[in-house]
Specification:
mainly alpha
Length: about 120
C-alpha cells in the first residue's frame, strides 16, 4: 500500500512540475491589459485660469534666439579656425581647442533643436 502511494505522489509530481512551468510561461507571455481610455476633456479650453500662449510670439522669440546663436556659432568657428592655424596640431592638441569644439557642438545642437520646433 505504501508503495502505491509513493508511486502516485511521484507521478503527480512528475506531471505537476511541467504543467506548472507551462502555465507560468503562458501567463508571462500574455499581453498586459491596457488601462481604460478616457475621452479627452474639452474643459481646458474653457478654463479662465489656464495660461494663454501666443504661438506667434513664441516663434518670434525662437527666431531671435536662433539668429543670436548662429552669430555666436560663427564667432566661435572663426576663433577655432585662428587657433588651429596658430598651433601645430600634429604635435600638441590644445585643451582650449577641445573646449571650444565642445561649445560649438552644444550650440549647433541647440540651434538644430530650436529649428525643428
Amino acid at each position: 500500500m505504501r508503495n502505491s502511494r509513493r508511486r502516485f505522489v511521484i507521478a503527480l509530481g512528475a506531471l505537476g512540475v511541467p504543467f506548472g512551468i507551462l502555465v507560468r510561461t503562458l501567463a508571462a507571455q500574455a499581453p498586459m491589459p491596457l488601462p481604460p481610455r478616457t475621452p479627452p476633456s474639452n474643459d481646458k479650453d474653457d478654463d479662465p485660469n489656464s495660461p494663454k500662449f501666443d504661438k506667434k510670439a513664441i516663434l518670434e522669440a525662437n527666431q531671435k534666439d536662433i539668429k543670436k546663436n548662429v552669430e555666436r556659432l560663427f564667432q566661435l568657428a572663426s576663433e577655432l579656425k585662428t587657433e588651429v592655424e596658430k598651433t601645430d596640431s600634429a604635435q600638441v592638441l590644445s585643451l582650449a581647442l577641445l573646449k571650444k569644439t565642445e561649445e560649438i557642438e552644444k550650440l549647433a545642437k541647440d540651434i538644430r533643436s530650436r529649428a525643428k520646433g
